[in-house]
Amino acid sequence: NAGVTQTPKFQVLKTGQSMTLQCAQDMNHEYMSWYRQDPGMGLRLIHYSVGAGITDQGEVPNGYNVSRSTTEDFPLRLLSAAPSQTSVYFCASSSSGGRTDTQYFGPGTRLTVL
Amino acid sequence: RKEVEQDPGPFNVPEGATVAFNCTYSNSASQSFFWYRQDCRKEPKLLMSVYSSGNEDGRFTAQLNRASQYISLLIRDSKLSDSATYLCVVTPNTGTASKLTFGTGTRLQVTL
Predict the structure, then answer these.
(1) CA A94 from chain center: how many Å?
(2) What are A47-94's pLDDT values in tens digits?
(3) Dihedral pair phi/psi, residue B81, rounded to 5°
(4) Partners of residue B11 on adjacent β-strands
(5) Residues B76-93: pLDDT tens digits?
């Protein structure tokens, strides 16, 4: 199993550009989520999904959209990039999203917005 | 006040030393507790869950003190490979993993 994969690894955008960060998992996990990690702050939840066709907002959803058309894929879309979105983005999955489930993280995407 | 607080460190310890980290949480209704490990520029990975009775996994011991609202991680006989950032993670008594709250992490550097 590849686990959780993310593409691209690095990305530089100009303010106002849009892009999609890709996330896929091959563990047949129902629960998937997106976090951002900034210096001096813990990982913060952006959006999450408890199954195909179901998504919900996390702690910091503004400026981001998600969709979940399949169990495997959970892309994150930046609608109009801003410098405040410069961060490291991690996708994670777990089998059912239960409180005691292990979260498996992808390798991350380092995004810089100029 | 942050929901989960950790001393950022760094903790610089020689190989073979014992080191302990604490993490405090503000929500007394929190139910599940974890330690994740994050290597430099890598993704977090689960190190261990923390149970009320305390639990041990090799050189690592985790404990929970509900009365004082903190969890701890003890590492015995530190190895160079233990150098990493250790993240404290807390979940509430309701909802799903959507409510995971991460601390900012404690950095450990083990030296020769």
Answers:
(1) 13
(2) 999 999 999 999 899 999 999 999 999 999 999 999 999 999 999 999
(3) -70, -10
(4) B108
(5) 999 999 999 999 999 876
pLDDT higher than 70, residue B97 = no
CB distance B43–A107 less than 8 Å? yes
Beta pairing partners, B110: B13
Q: How far A16 CA lies from chain B's nearest CA (Å)?
A: 27
Shortest CA distance from B95: residue in chain A: A99
Report the percentage of chain B scoring pLDDT > 90: 78
Whole-angstrom Cα distance, residue A89 to residue A13? 14
Closest residue of chain B to A110, computed from CA coordinates:
B41
Do the beta carbons of residue B45 and residue B36 sit within 8 Å?
yes
pLDDT band at residue B75 under the 50/70/90 scheme: very high
DSSP secondary structure letter of residue A82: -
Return the bridge partners of A4, or none.
Answer: A25
The 3-state secondary structure of chain A, one letter per residue: CCCEEEECCEEEECCCCCEEEEEEECCCCCEEEEEEECCCCCCEEEEEEEECCEEEECCCCCCEEECCCCCCECCEEECCCCHHHCEEEEEEEECCCCCCCCCEECCCEEEEEC
